[in-house]
Amino acid sequence: MSKQSDKRLYFPVGEVERVEYPCTKCNQGFYRYTPDGERIEKHNQMQHNCTHCNAVTFFTIPYPALKYKNRIFVDWETIRGRASEKI
Hints:
mainly beta; four-stranded antiparallel β-sheet
């Protein structure tokens, strides 16, 4: 994905950056993985809901995620449904 089309926001956490995906509907919240949400099996996409307006979207990785040495990783707390609202 080119930087021009990358809508994600990156926040430093030590040597790791937390990767957030801002809501495209309200522009106030961030999408969070919904562990019990729907899945689109064809593309292995997981449901995410906005923290502000509860808008629904689907991504192939659970957000928030972690970036380390230019690679994106899944955060265990995100998978468990315990992603922190604050950095």
